[in-house]
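Morning, I've got a small favour to ask if you have a moment. You're getting the sequence in one-letter code plus the fold written as C-alpha cells. Thanks so much in advance, here it is:

===
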Amino acid sequence: SHGVRHGVLTHSKPSASGHLVFHGATVAEGVHVADALREALDDRHAREWVDRLAEVVVKPWPGKAASAPWGSRVCEDLTYQLFALPWPLASREVVTRRTVLLTPGNGTARVQFDDAPGIHGFPTSPGRVRAVAHSTFVFSAHPARRATTIQVTGLVDPQGALPTALVNLLNRDWAANTINGLLGRVRDLERRGRLRAGPMAHGPCRGHDLTGWGSRAGPEPPSPTQTWAEAGRAWRDWALGVPPPPP
C-alpha cells in the first residue's frame, strides 16, 4: 500500500512471513543531517521520541568488526531495546547489531539494526518475549540548503501468539511515527536553543563530526524595504531549491 501518513510518504509490502515491511520517507526542511543523526543515535533520550520504548542498553559489539567500503567509516554496537505493549500483551525485547555507515563523499549516513542470534550479551528476561526485528535509517544531506532526506524501513516479527494481521495493524504508523518523533525531538531542541554543535558526544559514532556535511545555508534575512510577501516568496523558493534571480 502507498500513501501519505502524517506528512510522511509511506508504503508497505509483505515479507515471506506475511508480516509487512514498512517504509517511510520525507525531506526535513531546516534540519541539518548532523543534528538528525546525533539525536537518532543518542540512546539516553530515545524514549522521548521512540513509540513504546521503555529501556535501552548498549554494549560494545562482541563479534567481528564490519569492514567499511572505500571512503566510508563504520561504527557499531550491540543494542538491547525493551518495548512496553498495552495489557494483556507481553512486553517485547529486541537485541540487534547496530551498524552505522558514514559516507562523507555523498553526505549519507546509514544506520542498520539487524537481529543478532547467537549473541549472549542479553539473556531473555522472565515474562518478556524476544522479538526479531530489522530496520534501516538513511539520512542524506542536501548539498545546497539546510535540509535532510530521511528514509526508514522496518520489519518486525514479535514472536509469541499475536496474529499477523494484528501485528501489521499495530505497526502501520511505525514509519510515520518514527520520523515525526525524531524530527519533533530535533525541532524542540532547536526551539529551546539546546542543539549541540560539533562532534557526536554519545552513541556508537562518538567523536565523528558531520557538521561540515551539506549546507546550513538559508535565504538572506528580509531587508528593511522587503515586503512580507517578498520575504515569504524567498523562503518558499529556498525550501523548493529555486535559485535566486541574478542581481
Remarks:
- Helices lie at 33-40, 164-170, 174-191, 228-240.
- Confidence is low (pLDDT under 50) at residues 219-223.
- DSSP finds four helices and ten strands in the chain.
